[in-house]
Amino acid sequence: MRKIIEKEFALNYLNKYGSQMTVGNGYLGVRGALEEEYPEQVRGMYVAGIYNRPSGSTSSELVNLPDVTRFQVMLDDEVFSMQAGKVHAYERYLDMNTGELIRKITWESSNGKHYQLNFYRFASKVAKHMIAAKVEITPLSENTRVKVKTGIDAQQTNFGTQQLAESSLRIFDEKLMVGEYETIESKQRITVATKVSEKGIFTAKNRQLMTDVEQKVTANQTFTLEKISLVKTSLDEVDTEFPNTTYAELKLTSEAAWQDFWAHASVRVESTNDFDQFALDFACYHLEIMTPKNDFRCSVGAKGLTGEGYKGHVFWDTEIFIMPFFLYNQPEIAKQLLQYRYLHLKEAKEKALKNGYKGALYPWESAFTGEEETPEFAAINIRTGTRQKVASAISEHHLVADIAYAVCEYEVATSDAQFMVEYGAELLLETAEFWISRATSRNGRLEILDVIGPDEYTEHIDNNTYTNYMAHYNVKKALEWNKENTDFEARAKIFLENLYLPVANESGLIPQDDTFLQKDWINLDKYKAAQGTQGILLDYSRQEVNELQILKQADLVMLFYLFPKMFKAEMVKENLRYYEERTIHDSSLSKAIHAIVENRVGNREQAYQFFQEACLIDLGSEPHSSDDGLHAASLGAIWLAVVFGFAGMDTSGELLEITPNLPNKWKSIAFEFVWKGEQITVKMMPNTLQLSKSTKTVLELNIYGEKQQLTDILTINLERKDESL
Ligand code: BGC
């Protein structure tokens, strides 16, 4: 069915659905705001790469662009609003199969007249600059004077911050409205053009270029208004003319492109719980529309193009959580995401230098320029008036190795030697140089001091195990890819031999960092019950949290996830239990990763439980959790949990390994997986694994620990294996 459905209109959920029902295509995203205005409704349209740094701010923001989605509808002089009159029937859904958002309302006005109002909208998956909308109004009681006001509304702001100067407003041929704008600081030019299908009266006032269309509509006749809009910016390499097209024409090509996407990218799960399939489709749909295509100057923000959370900044979320979905479906997109990092090697080197290091230190938060964008201060404490400094830009350095890890992951999956020559080897070298300069000689070994690991509730600690192992891997891989660089080789070898890699203590526990295990522990039940809300910070100061064994998110468990063979299963199990008890999962990057690691150690029930909870991060009943955008990394991790968790794909060895371990509720799972340029169709049932591909080349695989060869079709009976689970 692939539909995101809103069954009834509720003000409290307006912005959550606004995020969920975003339409887009990676070039732009348009929030699913309703056509008419409601209190606190956040309307938003964003174009990848269009940021602006407001004066006095240290970070740029993904700009909320002039709006084309708003329609004010007047029916015999009464403004249509679902807060007035009576709603007799309501349905709204985003059809993920076609990318179209549809709303149908049977409404009775306050003076007792009945109407049918239907609204449609989509962003073309083919013509990336185009947004199409349609309104159908049918008076059901009597003839009605229908007035619709719509156009280009540049009163849009980022929560009050105006980012655009208006350069020009024009009408062409009594039809086409064109607004031109420029971002105030970054000087990007934006053009928004729109055309409605009926003649109206134009006005330009208060940053709004509008048309008023008025018509007498006979009872039971339908008045239809189409609106075709185009958005382009100075980042575009080719100019796009306003096309002469209709809603239906645009829809036809866009729909075909969606069909093609689902044919290859979908993961089909037969589960007794339909929600599993829905959550997966939701994740795939959003990953697809949040990710820029054919433009390596842009990457994916922490909320994609669905809202203004995290100001649209790019984090490690992209390489570790989002990129794999593309790597194993559309590897060229994964390459493009890595090229974005390569493009900003210069800024990363400048940041390293500025901080007294060598090599490349990527910004913790990045946007268009590749400079550090992390806000200097967190939100103000309104009781004390103080602001806490944000330490991530200064100390959260694991991102450097995360990017290097993604480069290696890409190389392993694609064997793209050209990429390594052009970008990969240098990226590995510069990131490795950073780690070599970042380490300190202490206690007769090299240590990495004063860092923040993935767990952001534990700051300024020494030898975060995740960071140290990742740095080690980064340098090791850099060495493999830069063999001719003898100068680097000497330094790299010293680093690799001397870097401290924490190991398990006598109780079998691997310390998260030098001091973690010595800290006190508190019962976290209350905070776990409200996970995602950061409620702990209301009861304890950050400083106090820092002195307790409290994790915001998977930390050591991230390392277990990324290196499935590095630690023995028993040890993983033990540490997983210990650290999970201390993890609130206040970050959305946590649950799905725990699901994967739980599944690997055989805790299938627990894994499924975590998977389902991860799916609820954006799809649960909590009304405001996704108001400022969806959790992009979490959506990527839902896909990971299925493909790398339950389906048991493992790319960390010489050969592709497959060790399925499906939840009891699942009868089958099927998906495509691109590996070394081969498109493999995978189908798993509890007792059978079926692999097929269309070429005749022989692919060696490791299935349940046994070498197998896949030519075109391979069917493996798993009954025997299943018994041991
Ligand atoms: C998490 C980070 C993450 C960021 C953006 C933070 O709350 O702790 O790991 O990168 O959100 O999603």
From TrEMBL:
GO terms for molecular function: carbohydrate binding; glycosyltransferase activity; hydrolase activity, hydrolyzing O-glycosyl compounds. Residues 6-234 form the Glycoside hydrolase family 65 N-terminal domain. The active site is at residue 456. SUPFAM superfamilies: Galactose mutarotase-like (SSF74650), Six-hairpin glycosidases (SSF48208). Transmembrane segments: none annotated. InterPro entries: 6-hairpin_glycosidase_sf, 6hp_glycosidase-like_sf, Gal_mutarotase_sf_dom, GH65_N, Glyco_hydro_65_C, Glyco_hydro_65_M, Glyco_hydro_65_N, Malt_Pase/Glycosyl_Hdrlase. Keywords: Glycosyltransferase, Transferase. Residues 649-710 form the Glycoside hydrolase family 65 C-terminal domain. The keyword Coiled coil does not apply. Residues 282-639 form the Glycoside hydrolase family 65 central catalytic domain. The keyword Lipid metabolism does not apply. Substrate binds at residues 316-317, 552-553. One of its GO terms (biological process) is carbohydrate metabolic process. Belongs to the glycosyl hydrolase 65 family. This is Glycosyl transferase, family 65.
